[in-house]
Write a structure and sequence with these properties.
By secondary structure, the chain is an alpha/beta fold. It contains 10 helices and 14 strands.
């Protein structure tokens, strides 16, 4: 996907300084490059929407390609020392560093994406990506001819396991013969590993590839192979449409960034935990392409609206865990606590959660 940024706003960097007296300095810490076509790019584009909204009221700075761990703690500390009032840390592995730096700078507000650790000056926010995975699973199960769906998994945390389970459940609903093959690459982004995983899955018979990784490399591999469909992750990845990319999950962070930044400006910010989905428009479903049969498209959109309205919850029983033990009874839905800590596969998925 080509980078879509707003002119001169792209000049903002960690060392950037503004010629005006902004009311607030807002920082963003990114795990990947801002042109990765996925997770980091969509965060950055949404941050730029926020910057455009507030104009001269805020000074926005960012640092890309920040590894999880000690390097991220250094970057966060540097931002705070340079006067950042609010810092968004946008990767799961930034959790401990965010908490550590927040203790040293109690007057700075921190927002940690996909995290679970909070403090008086640390909030967490995430999206119910698994709702989008349900729709992808429906399309995948309906369109596979080999009955083999490949899944490129990134880091073994509940968010990723939830996504695998949700996609599988909904693929299985429309295609009882479907089989999932999962390859874990143990990183959020590595184009070479992502491409290799896609190729390995295709060689194992997969004609549908799902991914929870950050770049478009799997789409390129599928395009080269031919007769394989893919789904955009985090960003639309529409450059690969109408095929192999047939739809996508799109992360919509801008409304949250605007709301929370406004609260800091107003002095009303407080530590909260936010977990929104399709109904709250934090999770978007990219256009379903012409490569998808009309009947399947209609079914997928109906599922989207049932989820958005709250009529349907993707984790609704009867469902068993992988070993066959009962998990959810008929009509029972999973509670958020169980979903937040999910580290088990549902019945029918082969292999182990790392």
């Amino acid at each position: 996907m080509k980078t879509r940024i707003f002119g001169a706003l792209a000049a903002a960097t960690l060392s950037a300084s503004a010629s005006f007296a902004a009311d607030l300095k807002v920082g963003f810490v990114y795990v990947g490059p801002i042109n990765d076509g996925g997770w980091t790019q969509i965060h950055h584009e949404n941050a730029l929407v926020m910057k455009e909204y507030f104009g001269d009221k805020i000074d926005m700075v960012y640092q890309e390609n920040v590894a999880e761990g000690a390097d991220s703690e250094r970057v966060m500390t540097q931002m705070a020392l340079q006067g950042a009032d609010l810092i968004y840390t946008t990767s799961f592995g930034y959790g401990d560093p965010t908490i550590s730096v927040a203790k040293k700078f109690p007057n700075v507000k921190f927002e940690h994406a996909t995290g679970y650790q909070r403090a008086e000056n640390v909030s967490t926010y995430s999206a119910r990506f698994y709702e989008g995975r349900a729709i992808q699973g429906h399309i995948a199960g309906s369109m596979t001819k080999s009955n083999i769906v490949g899944y490129i998994a990134s880091v073994p945390i509940p968010e990723v396991v939830r996504g695998i389970n949700s996609a599988y459940i909904h693929a299985k609903k429309v295609n009882p013969d479907v089989e999932f093959k999962i390859i874990w690459i143990y990183t959020w982004l590595d184009p070479a590993k992502e491409a290799d995983a896609a190729q390995a899955l295709i060689e194992q018979g997969a004609d549908v590839i799902l991914q929870h990784t950050d770049t478009t490399a799997p789409h390129a591999a599928a395009q080269k192979a031919g007769n394989v469909i893919t789904f955009g992750q985090a960003a639309d990845m529409a450059d690969y449409g109408p095929s192999p990319r047939v739809s996508s999950i799109i992360d919509n962070w801008a409304p949250y960034y605007i709301e929370r930044t406004q609260e800091v400006l107003d002095g009303t910010w407080s530590s909260v935990d936010t977990w929104h989905g399709i109904g709250d428009q934090m999770v978007g479903i990219g256009e379903i392409s012409s490569a998808v049969p009309t009947e399947v498209k209609i079914e997928a959109l109906a599922l989207k609206f049932r989820i958005a309205s709250g009529e349907y919850e993707p984790f609704t029983g009867p469902l068993n865990k992988q070993d066959g033990t009962p998990w959810l009874a008929e009509g029972e839905t999973a509670d958020d606590g169980t979903l937040a800590g999910m580290m088990f596969y549902v019945e029918g998925i082969e292999g182990d959660v790392p």
